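dude i think i finally got it to work??
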Amino acid sequence: MISTFVLIGLFGFLYCENNFIVVTRIAVESERLPDAFDGYRIVHLSDLHNKEFGRDQQHLVAIIEGQKPDLIAITGDIIDSRRYNTEPVLELVRRCTQIAPTYFVTGNHEWRLKKLEVLKELLEENGVHILQDAYAAITKGEDEIYVVGIDDPASENPAYYAGASTAERKIIKALEGIEKTGAFKILLAHRPEMFSLYSSYQFDVILSGHAHGGQVRLPFIGGLVAPGQGLFPKYTAGKYEKGDSVMIVSRGLGNSIFPQRLFNRPEVVVITLKKA
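look at this
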């Protein structure tokens, strides 16, 4: 009898770890932020990997809608290359684009899938703005900020890893046309391990995912393992600072190779920009 209760309790715990979403709120202050964007709110999603949160993604969408975002940023791996299924993805983006302008950059799984053109067409048909080594100007009144997005370096090496030199070429290409000196720039880039590179280009805010929070999070240690960073990775969740740049890493929503999260529930990140 006791063992039955233990098994039921264990199953319930593991289910909650994979399915009960946490909302993490992070404020970013900057003197460079234009006045009109003081209080601007971004919902950051990453690494869905086809995961479903209720029928028609109703649980996830209700959380997003409740944050009243001005913009929604999705930083890659919205789909899983091992389990191609676009319906959970489309259920989410159809609703997201009705809530706020939605911007997307690719992760490594989109490139490994080899069906990216089909996926892009589906996303764009549903109103998603795809940033492939490009930028978008966001205006409020007479003020303006830029959202810059780069393709994952796996675009040149779908087998998995491509170095920082590839990412740097993409950043340079994406910044072409931004002529305003000191413009406030937000970078969407899937991989957080390249933070030093991103900060060297003086992005004010960087939004990344990819690390899945380290998959298993240990007290006083943090994440256990992350792709591109190995054991005890440095960048797995939350807010990091280097120079004048702030990077925010989402723990993500779904799973890929390893099917279970531990002490690392799915996450929706809400970033509020504040004028310092």
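Residues 2-275 form a domain with the Purple Acid Phosphatase; chain A, domain 2 fold (CATH 3.60.21.10).
im so relieved honestly
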